[in-house]
Amino acid sequence: MKVTILDYGVGNLGSVRNALLCLGVEASVTSDARLIDSSDLLVVPGQGAAGDAMAALKSHGLVAPIQDYIRSGRPYFGICLGYQLLFDFTEEDGGIHGLGLFSGQVKRFDSRDIKVPQMGWNQLDVVNDPLELASGLDQPLFGYFANSYYVEPEDPSIVFTQTDYGTRFASSIQTATVLGCQFHPEKSGAVGLHIIKEFLNRHAH
């Protein structure tokens, strides 16, 4: 199975690669758009500002290859910005259009009652898990977060976990081929590794 981590200059690639190595998966790291099409599973991490991230994707010629890859039904694993940018629009940086692969918006936490950004551990409440990625894990689950923005998907059926932080938000989504996490599975200990492993197992060939 050829696993590719996309390097577009805004992700903590080392921790993601190390998490995959812990699971016995050797992933290649690339910014070459041509290599996306030959991947069996694409991992897109990301941290920082959405505007910088979209600008980087555009400058590397990666927008259309990512869209084509996901629309073709091949497995995609997005973390933090790699999750948020799947949607239509984010309020960040004065308003940025994302990849438009899912309907929904990314909104900023209201900082009047909570500390923004959210930094640290928070609970993951499983609401839909058709791939059974959380099967076998003891509840409650916790993930590690570092975010000022959260996703509001239009389709509630794709929401995998929800988390409370001033508001109740979609802390991850899953479809048959897409796993998107606002929390950082690669920094979430045994729970994060389990979810990554199960997603890989569903698409191993």
What topology does this entry show?
Blueprint: E1 3-6, H1 13-22, E2 27-30, H2 33-36, E3 41-44, H3 50-59, H4 63-71, E4 76-79, H5 81-84, E5 87-90, E6 96-97, E7 102-108, E8 118-126, E9 141-147, E10 149-153, E11 159-165, E12 167-174, E13 178-181, H6 189-202
Parallel strand pairs: 1-2, 1-3, 3-4, 4-13, 5-7
Antiparallel strand pairs: 5-6, 7-10, 8-9, 8-11, 11-12, 12-13
Word description of this protein:
The protein has six helices and 13 strands. With 205 residues, the chain is of the alpha/beta class. It has a single domain (3-95, 103-202), classed as Class I glutamine amidotransferase (GATase) domain (Rossmann fold), CATH 3.40.50. Strand 12 (167-174) and strand 13 form a beta hairpin. The longest helix is centred in the C-terminal third of the chain and has 14 residues, at 189-202.
Residue share in β-strands: 25-35%
Overall tally of domains: 1
Helical stretch count? 6
Distance between the termini: 6 Å
Q: Strand pairing plus helix content: what structural class?
A: alpha/beta
Coarse morphology: globular
What characterizes the major β-sheet?
Answer: 9 strands, mixed
User: What is the CATH T-level topology?
Assistant: Rossmann fold
Number of strands: 13
CATH architecture: 3-Layer(aba) Sandwich
Could you give a short description of this structure?
Helix content is about 25%, strand content about 35%. It is of the alpha/beta class and about 200 residues long.
Keywords:
205 residues; alpha/beta; Rossmann fold; 9-stranded mixed sheet; 4-stranded mixed sheet; 6 helices; 25% helix; globular
